[in-house]
Amino acid sequence: MSNYAVVKNGVVENIIVWDGQNAFSIEGSELVEVTDNARIGGTYDGEFHYVQPTPPEPTAEQVAAAEVRASTVEKLKALGLNDAEIASITGG
User: Which of 32, 71, 80, 90 has the maximum number of C-beta atoms within 10 A of its C-beta?
Assistant: First the structure.
Protein backbone atom coordinates (compact mmCIF):
# COMPACT_ATOMS: atom_id res chain seq x y z
CA MET A 1 0.00 0.00 0.00
CA SER A 2 1.20 3.47 -0.90
CA ASN A 3 -0.12 7.00 -0.93
CA TYR A 4 -1.40 8.25 -4.27
CA ALA A 5 -2.38 11.75 -5.28
CA VAL A 6 -5.69 12.22 -7.05
CA VAL A 7 -4.72 14.74 -9.75
CA LYS A 8 -7.37 16.51 -11.81
CA ASN A 9 -6.43 19.17 -14.36
CA GLY A 10 -2.94 19.37 -12.83
CA VAL A 11 -4.16 20.01 -9.27
CA VAL A 12 -3.87 17.55 -6.37
CA GLU A 13 -7.43 17.18 -5.11
CA ASN A 14 -6.86 14.40 -2.58
CA ILE A 15 -4.34 11.85 -1.34
CA ILE A 16 -5.47 8.26 -0.92
CA VAL A 17 -4.01 4.90 0.10
CA TRP A 18 -4.03 2.34 -2.73
CA ASP A 19 -2.09 -0.81 -3.53
CA GLY A 20 -1.41 0.48 -7.06
CA GLN A 21 -2.30 -2.88 -8.59
CA ASN A 22 -5.99 -3.65 -8.14
CA ALA A 23 -8.26 -1.99 -10.65
CA PHE A 24 -9.23 1.43 -9.34
CA SER A 25 -9.85 4.76 -10.98
CA ILE A 26 -11.49 8.09 -10.32
CA GLU A 27 -13.24 9.51 -13.36
CA GLY A 28 -11.47 12.51 -14.83
CA SER A 29 -8.46 12.10 -12.53
CA GLU A 30 -5.00 10.62 -12.66
CA LEU A 31 -3.55 8.62 -9.73
CA VAL A 32 0.12 9.38 -9.10
CA GLU A 33 2.29 7.90 -6.35
CA VAL A 34 3.19 10.75 -4.01
CA THR A 35 6.59 12.20 -3.19
CA ASP A 36 7.55 14.44 -0.27
CA ASN A 37 6.34 17.48 -2.25
CA ALA A 38 2.78 16.23 -2.80
CA ARG A 39 0.13 18.28 -0.97
CA ILE A 40 -3.60 18.68 -1.44
CA GLY A 41 -4.01 21.94 -3.34
CA GLY A 42 -0.58 21.61 -4.93
CA THR A 43 0.06 21.08 -8.62
CA TYR A 44 1.44 18.21 -10.67
CA ASP A 45 3.13 18.54 -14.06
CA GLY A 46 5.28 15.42 -13.93
CA GLU A 47 6.56 16.66 -10.56
CA PHE A 48 4.65 17.81 -7.50
CA HIS A 49 4.77 21.51 -6.59
CA TYR A 50 3.33 23.19 -3.54
CA VAL A 51 3.55 26.80 -2.43
CA GLN A 52 2.27 27.63 1.05
CA PRO A 53 -0.62 30.06 0.66
CA THR A 54 -0.09 33.57 1.96
CA PRO A 55 -1.91 33.98 5.26
CA PRO A 56 -4.85 36.38 5.12
CA GLU A 57 -4.42 39.92 6.35
CA PRO A 58 -5.64 40.35 9.94
CA THR A 59 -9.06 41.87 10.37
CA ALA A 60 -9.54 45.29 11.97
CA GLU A 61 -10.81 43.52 15.09
CA GLN A 62 -7.68 41.34 15.27
CA VAL A 63 -5.41 44.37 14.87
CA ALA A 64 -7.29 46.25 17.60
CA ALA A 65 -7.14 43.25 19.94
CA ALA A 66 -3.37 42.89 19.38
CA GLU A 67 -2.88 46.59 20.15
CA VAL A 68 -4.92 46.32 23.36
CA ARG A 69 -2.96 43.23 24.42
CA ALA A 70 0.40 44.93 23.74
CA SER A 71 -0.69 47.99 25.68
CA THR A 72 -1.87 45.82 28.57
CA VAL A 73 1.42 43.92 28.68
CA GLU A 74 3.43 47.16 28.70
CA LYS A 75 1.32 48.54 31.56
CA LEU A 76 1.78 45.34 33.58
CA LYS A 77 5.55 45.48 32.99
CA ALA A 78 5.56 49.10 34.16
CA LEU A 79 3.95 47.89 37.38
CA GLY A 80 6.91 45.54 37.87
CA LEU A 81 5.35 42.21 36.89
CA ASN A 82 7.61 39.64 35.24
CA ASP A 83 6.81 37.68 32.05
CA ALA A 84 5.49 34.62 33.92
CA GLU A 85 3.14 36.76 36.01
CA ILE A 86 1.92 38.62 32.92
CA ALA A 87 1.36 35.34 31.07
CA SER A 88 -0.73 34.00 33.94
CA ILE A 89 -2.90 37.12 33.87
CA THR A 90 -3.24 37.48 30.11
CA GLY A 91 -3.46 33.77 29.29
CA GLY A 92 -0.35 33.62 27.22
Answer: 32
